[in-house]
Amino acid sequence: MTVTPKNLAGPLAAPPAASARITGIGGYRPRRVVPNSEIVERIDSSDEWIRERSGIIERRWAGEGESVIDMSELATTPALEMAGIEAAQLDAILVATVSWPYQTPAAAPMLAERLGSKAAALDISAACAGYCHGITMANDMVRAGTAEHVLVVGVERLSDFTSRDDRGTAFIFADGAGAAVVSRSEVQGIGPTVWGSDGAQWEAISQTESWIDVHQKNLGWPHIGMAGQTVFRWAVWGMAPVAQKALDAAGVTADQLDAFVPHQANVRIIDAMAKQLKLPADIPIARDIAYTGNTSAASVPLAMERMVREGEIPRGGLALQIGFGAGLSYAAQVVTIP
Ligand SMILES: CC(C)(COP(=O)(O)OP(=O)(O)OC[C@H]1O[C@@H](n2cnc3c(N)ncnc32)[C@H](O)[C@@H]1OP(=O)(O)O)[C@@H](O)C(=O)NCCC(=O)NCCS
C-alpha cells in the first residue's frame, strides 16, 4: 500500500531572511590571580619555562561565588548593556562549556532563570571551539528568523577538571567567562563560518576516564588530559588554512582586518598562525593568554572584550576569530567588532 501526504501544496510559512551582527560583548575574570610561581613546584617546572613555552605569566582560578552560572551572569550583564537590550528580550541562550559539572540539565536554562529570561536555552559541547560554533548557530538563527536576539556565552571552570600534578596541563588551563549578543541588524556583520572536526584525534584532548569507568572502577575524580605535541602540530599547521578560508569566504583580505582574535591556546601557536596568514605588522593580535591562561570556550570572547574595552581595536571594524580544540573541532569567521 502506498500512502500519500495530505498536503502537496508546497512550502510552509517562513519568516523573511534577516541580517545579523554581534551587538554586545562582555567578560568576567575570576578574582583570584594565580602566578606561575604557585604552580611550578608540583610539576617540577619554572616561571621561565612556562613563559617561554606557552606565553602564560598568570591565570585566574575561580573560587566561591564564581560558579559557571555566576561567571556567565557577570559576563552577560555588560554584553546586554552594550547591546541595549534586556534579558527578557532574548529569544535563545547558548552556553558553550566543557566544565559544567552536571550531566543534565544543561547550564543554559539555569543561566536563563538567573537572568530573568524564559528563552530557549541549551549548551554547546565543542570545547575551545564552542564559542565560535555558538556565533555560527546564533547567526543562522537570527538570519532564518527563529530569533531576534541570541546570547552566546563561553564559560569554563577548568580548574575543577585540571590535575595540579599534570605537567602538560596544570599551567595552561584557567577559568573565566565571555558573552556576546547576536541580534538582527540592517547590515550583515558575521561572515560565513568555516568549521569541521577530526574525530580520528578524539583522544588528543579528553577527560581521562569516562564517568562510567570512574563509577564502576572507583577511579577518583577525572581530569582533562592532553597530548601536547600532537595538539600543537595540528593547531600550527591545520588552523592557519582554516582561518585563511574564513577570510576568503567573507571576501576580506588580511590587510583589511582590524584585529585577529584566535583561541588563546598557546602564544607560540598564535604567533605561528599570524606568520602563516602573513598578517601585516600593524594588525592587533589578541594575546590575552599572558594574563588569563587558556580558558577554552571563554578565550575568544574574553580576548575580544579586553581589546574593545581597552580601545585597542575599533568598534565597527573587522576581526578574524577562530576557535579550535578538543574533538578535535574548529570554527572560524570574520565578524564586525561590536
Ligand atoms: C604543552 C606544551 C607547552 C609542552 O611543550 P613541548 O615543547 O611540546 O614539551 P614536550 O612535552 O615536548 O617536552 C619538552 C621538554 O620539556 C619538558 N617539560 C614538559 N612539560 C614541562 C613543564 N610543565 N615544565 C618544565 N618542563 C617541562 C619535558 O620533560 C621535555 O624535556 P626534555 O627535552 O629534557 O625531555 C606544548 O606541547 C603545547 O603548547 N601544546 C599545545 C597545547 C595547547 O595549546 N592546548 C590547548 C589546545 S586547545
From TrEMBL:
Main location: cytoplasm
UniProt feature coiled coil, ranges: none
UniProt keyword Cytoplasm present: yes
Domain of life: Bacteria
Localization of this protein: Cytoplasm
Molecular function GO labels: 3-oxoacyl-[acyl-carrier-protein] synthase activity; beta-ketoacyl-acyl-carrier-protein synthase III activity
Pathway terms, separated by semicolons: Lipid metabolism; fatty acid biosynthesis
One GO CC term on file: cytoplasm
Alphabetized UniProt keyword annotations: Acyltransferase, Cytoplasm, Fatty acid biosynthesis, Fatty acid metabolism, Lipid biosynthesis, Lipid metabolism, Multifunctional enzyme, Transferase
Positions of the catalytic residues: C128, H263, N294
Pfam families named among the record's database cross-references: ACP_syn_III, ACP_syn_III_C
GO biological process, alphabetically ordered: fatty acid biosynthetic process
Function recorded in the entry: Catalyzes the condensation reaction of fatty acid synthesis by the addition to an acyl acceptor of two carbons from malonyl-ACP. Catalyzes the first condensation reaction which initiates fatty acid synthesis and may therefore play a role in governing the total rate of fatty acid production. Possesses both acetoacetyl-ACP synthase and acetyl transacylase activities. Its substrate specificity determines the biosynthesis of branched-chain and/or straight-chain of fatty acids.
Subunit relationships: Homodimer.
The protein's name: Beta-ketoacyl-[acyl-carrier-protein] synthase III
Gene designation per UniProt: fabH
